[in-house]
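ok so for the tutorial part 2 we go from a plain amino acid sequence to predicted structure tokens. step 1 is just haveing the sequence, like this:
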Amino acid sequence: MIRRTFLALTAAASLAAPAFADGHSKDIVDTAAAAGSFETLLAAATAAGLVDTLKSEGPFTVFAPTDEAFAALPDGTVESLLLPENKDQLTAILTYHVVAGKVMSTDLTDDMTAATVQGGEITIDLDNGVMVNDATVVSADVEASNGVIHVIDKVIMPTGG
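step 2 — the prediction. this is what the tokens look like for a chain of 161 residues:
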């Protein structure tokens, strides 16, 4: 179940609006699962026990790393995070990618910060495209019944995480 919570959009092209154009009747988890390119994110969300939360009413804004973003982490990182003894660290990383409320790209301003569900803050930079911390937004405003997904090309880490 949690497997379908976070959206790991790997191929930016395959994440274009047509892949999600179904009237956003699906929640964030099901939208990500239907995209077929968020397997790592969904597996991580499942391991962290976050699927039910991401299927709840929300709304949530999820900055969803692609499968390629997870693959770019140092060897063994994902496998290590998926171990039961690392659930707290995994949960912190995943919830750092989530902001309460529905934040569309038109709501963003340069150098704004947003509080994450994890408790830290992310910074938005609009100078060179749209950046969230050091990740680039490759597809924005993928709407779901309980929020919105913005696909990013890197896994962002909370400070100290």
